[in-house]
Each structure stands twice: as C-alpha cells, then as structure tokens.
C-alpha cells in the first residue's frame, strides 16, 4: 500500500487540488463533519467538478479499454490486513471523467488516498503522467461473504450512483443518492459525488461505513451509509440535503434498472433469448398496507406513473424471475441480478412512488427508474433529513401475507386489436380447492372482453386469463386482484397497456 495515502508524489495538499474545503490529513473526523462541509458548500456558488485535467488518451477510451484498467494484484487497500473488506480506487477515464476525492478514516483521523499509478494494471494501455493529483472516479469494495474468499460487494461510480450485491449475485440495479427533475421539461439535473470518507473496519467487523459528499447546481448533500454484506446485503442510509434554490421535483431512494423485453413485452425484439431485463417490476407496500405489483415494460414513448401515498412502508425494483429458463442468456445471467427493496425509516409524509419507463433499444440502458417524490417542495436555504434501509437481495425480507404475482404474459387477442393477458398468482391460498374466488378486474379506459380462471393447485397457482379491448385508446390502466369471502387474497396487479 506504499504511496497510496497522502504521502504521495504530489506536493499540493488535497484540499487545494479539489477546490473543496476538505479536511486535511490528520484532521479529526467527527460524526457531523460531512454535514458541515455540505452546509457550507450550499452557501457558495456551484462549481462543477474538474475535468479539464483529464488527457484525451483517457477521455477517449472505449468501454472495453476502460474496463481493462483494474487494481494491480495485491494493491487493494487493506489487502494485507486480513479484514473482511478491501477497497479499490477506480481510475478516471472514458465516461467517468469527474474527479472524486477519497480518504480513509483511521483511528478517528482523516488519511487522504493519493493517486499512485502503480495501484493499477491496464491491459497494455500506458497511463499518462500527471502534474497534479488527478483523484479518482469512485471506488469498488470487495467483501468476504460468510468467511469466503473476497468477491465483489459494492461499486460507487458515476454521478451519485452506487450498487451493492448479495452473496452469489452479479451487478444489476443501480441506486441513486439523490434524484432531481427526472423526465422534467426543465431537464434532469444529476447530482455528483465529490468526496468519500471510508471508515476502516476493525478486524472481523462485518459492517463498513461510508460518508459521501454530494453536489449539484441546485443542492449539496451529505450521506452516511452503513453497509453489511450477506445473503441479503443491507445499506442503512442517512442523508441531509441543503438546497441552493427551491426544489419542487425531488427524488428520494432512487433506483434504476434495464428492461429490454420479457414475456409480456417483446416489442421489436427479434432475439433468441426468452428475456433480457435486470428488474421485472415495481413492488410497493403502501401506507395502507396494500401489496402492489406493477410489471415494467419497454414502451414506444416515455411513460410516467405516480402511485400517490402517505408514509409508504416500502418499494423496490424487483427481479422475481430466478430460473435460467426465464432468460436463456449464457452471458448476462439476468437471473442472478439483485432485487432492491427500500424501507423508509421514520415518516415520509405525503408524496408518490414514481415510475419512469423510457424507450430503449439496448439491454445496457437503465431505462426503468423508480423513486419517492415528496409532495412538499424544498425551500432554498432549508435543510431536509431522511433515512431508509435498502435490502439488496434475492427476495425481500418479508413477503406480504397474500399470494403474489408470479408471472405476466401478453399477446394477440381473439380479434381486432384485442390483447390477451395471462396473470399468475402463486401462494398457499391456491394450494388446494377452496371457496369460490372473486375476480376484481377493471380497465380505464377500455373494456374487458372476457375473463377465465384456471386453478393449478399442484403449483399453488391461480391463472387469470382475460382480453383487453382498448378500442381506439392509446393507453389503458388495468387493475386486477382476487378476493375470497370478501377479503383480498392476492397482491394488486397494476399494468399500463400502450400499443
């Protein structure tokens, strides 16, 4: 690890290099340090992160060339300490041009991480010489899951994006530290990570704490993340936002994933695979404890859906398809991608879980975005605090006490422009024949032409088959649930049909 900390080859102090008032080497790091930095930053005019120091040889790297730059063997931070984690700074280059400062917190003191070319291997590409410390583009964490060998755990890189994994998974859904004006006529604003402070864990400790500074034209912010790897990896997140201006379109708990095509939506996909998506739907448990499942799709035009609520219990972009046969993809293995379930800590008041579905022709585009949009705008100069817990998981921590949607399929109907839908509900309620099941099915606008129930007790499944006749409409909102003895026994299935 020689040369990786502040005593590197660059003479300029880190705070001067970044034009941010960051704590110098050896300074005490207190619980409110990043909050105070963000508060002071919000009182000053916005200054974009520096990119003019990045040579063209790095800026013009292809995706493949950039991905070939990795940590040299044995050079990860803490690699020789026998901890449950290692930390790997990520080089700037390609689309990751923004400069991010990294520092460790050791024995309560700040230890800036200085740039060192020998930290990296490049696959043959020669890294340029820098006259000043160029910083980094982010960092990667590896962890020992259940005492095993080190493997990928977390990635913080790009805008204010980060990803975690549970044991045995591959990277998929991406979280956002802060979301501002997505799909807004005024244009989306992308807050950016500016600096990180990572607390060195004690020997044997299974939790890592990351502090992050966020900045954008409209606001600055401080984030504290407590990260725990496991069969379900958990992130406990506390944040404070400091608006420079009034903010009327804020997104908390933002998350995004790719959806190209699946069993109910193969629009324009001439593809040998059965599906290509990192998340199949949006799951919500609203303030009234209603369990909702909204399959996502790849539309022809931008679709925005708002699910009004007060004090939501949780929401997330979920990957419910866990069988190889659901995708038949030997490279991407979408069945290994995490679900991301979020539970607010404290009351969040009135607002809406908001879903954006963006047209995409590439499986690498994260075209599905979900977030909580508070009803109340933020005033300039105010401070807003929030907290939530994320579960990066194979399955969310608690299943609703009702049958859940196990599948949605769609295809051509019996005539005209009718569409046939097959919706499967699976749960113990359908494990054996019981009292008659009542179907609650509506279309607005449009009409339901016919509907049939198909029980499959050996699979604990009830299939609802129905046809939608949209007439001349260009969008129809569908709502479906099953009831027995006057009580709802399934999730509420919601769907927006568009041509």
Automatic annotation (TrEMBL):
Keywords: Periplasm, Signal. The gene is opgG_1. Its main location: periplasm. InterPro entries: Gal_mutarotase_sf_dom (IPR011013), GH-type_carb-bd (IPR014718), Glucan_biosyn_MdoG/MdoD (IPR014438), Glucan_biosyn_MdoG_C (IPR007444), Ig-like_fold (IPR013783), Ig_E-set (IPR014756). This is Glucans biosynthesis protein G. Residues 1-21 form the signal peptide. Belongs to the OpgD/OpgG family. Gene3D superfamilies: 2.70.98.10, Immunoglobulins. Pfam families: MdoG. The keyword Signal applies. Residues 29-497 form the Glucan biosynthesis periplasmic MdoG C-terminal domain. SUPFAM superfamilies: E set domains, Galactose mutarotase-like. It comes from Methylobacterium oxalidis. It is found in: Periplasm. The keyword Signal applies. Pathway: Glycan metabolism; osmoregulated periplasmic glucan (OPG) biosynthesis.
